[in-house]
Amino acid sequence: MKSLKKAQGITLIGFIFGLVILGVFVYAGMQIGPVYMNHMNVVKAMKTVADESGNSSPSEIKNRLAKILDVSYVDQVNAKDFKVIRGNGRELEVKYEVEKSFFYNLSFLMKFEERVQLN
């Protein structure tokens, strides 16, 4: 009688299943990645305006932010979402949410909140 060799490796169905799981994660990254890249542009714009603010009024700060965000092609947040808060010095604050659809009725909801001290 012949002895059977122990099977090694992965089956075709297992390989396809692994590819599907990998594909779902890659697709999720393609949906979420640009949102976080835009958020990094928002934070960069806030820091730039904070460094240049001096004694600028809140409306001047928001106008400058709107220009910087427009140049950076950020469309998920606008100047209305920013607030200048007075307290121990002045702070620039932004709070916004971004919803990205994923599959059929599933979506990602990402909430962002940042504060930067104004000079």
UniProtKB/TrEMBL annotation:
Keywords from the named record: Membrane, Transmembrane, Transmembrane helix
Superkingdom assignment: Bacteria
Protein name, entry field: DUF4845 domain-containing protein
Membrane-spanning parts: 12-30
Keyword Transmembrane helix in annotation: yes
Organism field: Marinicella sediminis
InterPro entries cross-referenced by the UniProt entry: DUF4845
